[in-house]
Amino acid sequence: MIESAKCDAMPRKNYSTARKRANNELEKAAGSFGYEMEKTYLIQRLLPPYEGTGLLAMNPNPFAFGGGLRNGGLSDNAMKILGQAFQFDYMGSAEFEFGAVPKALSKILNYVNASECTVGTVRLGIQEVYFLSSKRQENYVRTLLPLLYKDEYDVNLKEYCLLRESVNDEHNYRNVRGWIELDNGFMFFSDKKMFQNTCEILGIRDMMIEKLHGTLSSIAELKKSAR
């Protein structure tokens, strides 16, 4: 009875209040530039690239998109290109498996090609997290990441993103090191090398956006598969 009384007396977090507060912060950030943004709900987890050889090098995680579209709607060549920077983690929900990833990548490629991309860092704990977004999304990203790090339950995602576990390297049993936000189209990484390799694939050099002259073959292939 004494132990039960102690448990009842412990303060419990009010997730309804916490989620309302998080939503208010994100809505304020989304409207800071008069830019309409979707509420973040789907965040695709990314794993380090496969470093072996053979058939698995082409697609090291063939079941990453479960019973959905092949490669989630990406072409085999697009998977090969992206595989130089990261591989997709299995999310376990159909919302990730039927074209959401190619649509998000298409948004990213569009603002990269339009020279509307920006990159930066957000300090979470003692580590920097690197992000790639459109210029209009930057304030939203800088607001979202600390909320996810503090307690991702407050953001009410469809599936776990495991940002805190990755940054603190605690209980990160899936070895998650990167993410694609699918609702609005931006990326962030706890691993600097994965971030740099992704920027290279997208035509971004030295963490600065340069106006693209012509279309890189890798971007052309990704854009083709993202339609």
Q: What would you note in describing this structure?
A:
The protein is an alpha+beta fold. It has one domain. Helix content is 38%, strand content 14%. It contains 8 helices and 6 strands; from the N terminus they run ααβαβαββααββαα. The chain has a 6-stranded antiparallel β-sheet with strand order 2-1-5-6-4-3, with helices on both faces. A hairpin with a 4-residue loop joins strand 5 and strand 6. Helix 4 packs across helix 8. The longest helix has 16 residues. The radius of gyration is 19 Å and the shape is globular. The termini are far apart. The N terminus is likely disordered.
Task: Output the keywords.
6 strands, 227 residues, six-stranded antiparallel β-sheet, alpha+beta
How would the blueprint of this fold be written?
Elements: H1 2-9, H2 15-30, E1 43-47, H3 76-82, E2 87-88, H4 100-113, E3 117-124, E4 127-134, H5 138-151, H6 163-168, E5 178-181, E6 186-189, H7 192-202, H8 217-226
Antiparallel strand pairs: 1-2, 1-5, 3-4, 4-6, 5-6
Helix pairs in contact: 2-5, 4-8
General shape: globular
User: Largest sheet, described in full?
Assistant: 6 strands, antiparallel
Helix content percent band: 25-40%
What is the CA-CA span between the terminal residues? 62 Å
Q: What is the count of structural domains?
A: 1
Strand order of the largest sheet: 2-1-5-6-4-3
* Helix/strand order, N-terminal first: HHEHEHEEHHEEHH
Beta-strand percentage range: 5-15%
Estimate the mean pLDDT confidence. Answer: 81
